[in-house]
C-alpha cells in the first residue's frame, strides 16, 4: 500500500507540474503573439508618423516651390535614364529633351545628381525624389522632429536616431521586437532613401492593453490551476489518511497475531498433554481432542499466513540467494503425499538442466506450498497434483501446479488474487480458509519481478504457473 501511495503521489505531482507547465507555456506564447501583433501596429504607426512629418515639412517649404531641382535617375519602368525637375510641390519630367509636363518653375537649379532607383517601383521613386529635394531646400531639425513625433505617438514614443547606412531602406522593418520581459521595440523607417538615410525609432509596447485582451484567458487558466492544486491537496490529504488507516490496520493485525499466538500455543500444549494419556481409540473424548488439535493447527496456519501477507505488503527486502530448487520441490512433494485426510497423488516433472535457482528460497517455496495446499483443499477425495519446473528460454524459470479440483469460473479468475476473496462456487463454504493464499502468491511473484498465469475450467481443475526471472 505504501508503495502504491508513493506512486500515486508521484504521478499526481508530475501531472500537476506538467499541466501547470503547459498552461504557462500557452500563456507565454499567447502574450508573445499579442506583443508581436502590437509590435506590427507600432511599426505601422511609426511609418505613418514619418510620412505625416515629411508631408508637414513639404508644406512648410511651399514658399520655395518656384525653385526646381534637376536630377537624373534610372527607374525600373524606363530603359533609359530620366531627367526630372522636382520641387516640393510638383514634378516635371524631361525625356530626351522633351518636356512632358510644362514646367512652372521660375528658377531651375541646373545642378544635376544621378541616382539609380531601379530597385524600387516608380511611384516610390518619385516620392523619394520629392523627399530628397525637400531636404535640399531645408535643414533637418532633430529637436523639431522629436517634438512632432511625440505629439503623434504620445507615450509610446521613446526616442529616434538618424542612421546612414550602405544600403537604401525602402520598407519599414522591426529591428528589435518586444519581449515578455522587455517592453520596448526598435523600428527602422525609410526617411531619405536616396541618401541612404533611415530613422530608427524606439517605442514602448504597453502591456496593459495586452493583458486586458487576454483577461478571460488568464482568469480561466488561473482557475484551472487553482482547482488542480486544490484537487492534489485533497488527494494528498486522503492518501495520508489512508496511509494512517493502513498503518493502524497493520498494527492491529500484528498485535492480534501476537496476542493470539500465546493462547493457541497454550491450547495446543494442553491438547498434547491429554492426547499423551492412554485412552481407547473409540473414546469420544479422544475424538474431540483430535478435532481440537487439528483446528488449533489450522488456526496457527492462518495466523502464520496472515503474518506473511502483512510482511509482503510492507515490502521487506527479499533475501535473494542461489538454492537447489529441485531438492526443495522434491521435499514439498513428499510432504503433501503424506496427507492423511485425502488420497493425494503428487507427481514432479523437472525439466531444467540445472538444479540451482535465484530467488528468496523461503518465500518461493511458500508460494508453491500455497498452490499445492489449494489443490488439496479444493479437490475431491482423490487429489491428483502435477508440479512442473522448466526454463522458458528467456532467462526465466517457470513453476506450474496443476490439479483436478473444482476449477475457477472465468468471471472469478481475476478476483481470486484479491485479499480475503473467496469464491461463491465452492461446494462447501465451511471449507477452512480466509482468502489470503493467492493474494500472497501474487505479491511474492511481483516482488521478484515475475508474472503469474492461470488456466482453469470449472469441474476440470486448475493450472497456475509462476515465472521468476533469473538475474545474473
Automatic annotation (TrEMBL):
List the catalytic activities from the record.
Answer: ATP + protein L-histidine = ADP + protein N-phospho-L-histidine
Cross-referenced PROSITE patterns: HIS_KIN
Which residues lie in coiled coils?
A: none
Q: What is its EC number?
A: 2.7.13.3
Which class of enzymes does this protein belong to? Answer: transferase
Decide whether keyword Transmembrane is in the record. Answer: yes
For this UniProt entry, which segments traverse the membrane?
Answer: 7-28, 215-240
SUPFAM superfamilies noted in UniProt: ATPase domain of HSP90 chaperone/DNA topoisomerase II/histidine kinase (SSF55874), Homodimeric domain of signal transducing histidine kinase (SSF47384)
Q: Which Pfam families match?
A: HATPase_c
Enumerate the spans annotated as Histidine kinase domain: 255-472
Keyword set for this entry? Kinase, Membrane, Transferase, Transmembrane, Transmembrane helix
- Domain of life, per UniProt, equals Bacteria
What's the protein here called? histidine kinase
Q: What is the lineage of its organism?
A: Bacteria, Pseudomonadati, Bacteroidota, Bacteroidia, Bacteroidales
